[in-house]
């Protein structure tokens, strides 16, 4: 009997993120395909609809409870930031977690983002989350994952890839099934 995809112990993830516009996502995918080909990388490229910049991780759960969704929605609603440009100037691999099955590491190949406004949104969202009883991350490395593969790629400059951040979203990720469900979305209007 065929089995479905193997899901983690805590398969329900809730997080805040920015999605690039469609044109930017397609541009990033073309860049990734070219980069992978030129550097002879192996791994699984993400599809453009999965490209995002994570802002805050709310939590991983066995079952997604309404109280966490409600608290996260209240936090999202409380944030007020003007639209801003997100710019990626570098590409590199993160180390990635060691594999428990003996397989090679799945190292994320990422575009690195920067900007004061991006950090401000991360911090504002974290403050709002803490006011609703959620934990928030203090450290923030803005990035957009393109691929998971075994090879470690050192940081290198790229021709910038940019997009205007006009809204942010609360996402329910069904881990192991590669599905993102938009729970709510808020415009950036300051």
Automatic annotation (TrEMBL):
Q: Which terms are listed as keywords in the entry?
A: Hydrolase, Ligase
Keyword Nucleotide-binding in record: no
Matches recorded under InterPro entries: Cyclic_Pdiesterase, RNA_CPDase
One Pfam family, short name please? Answer: 2_5_RNA_ligase2
- Hydrolase found in the keyword field: yes
Q: Recorded GO terms, molecular function?
A: ligase activity
This protein's superkingdom?
A: Bacteria
The molecule here is called: 2'-5' RNA ligase family protein
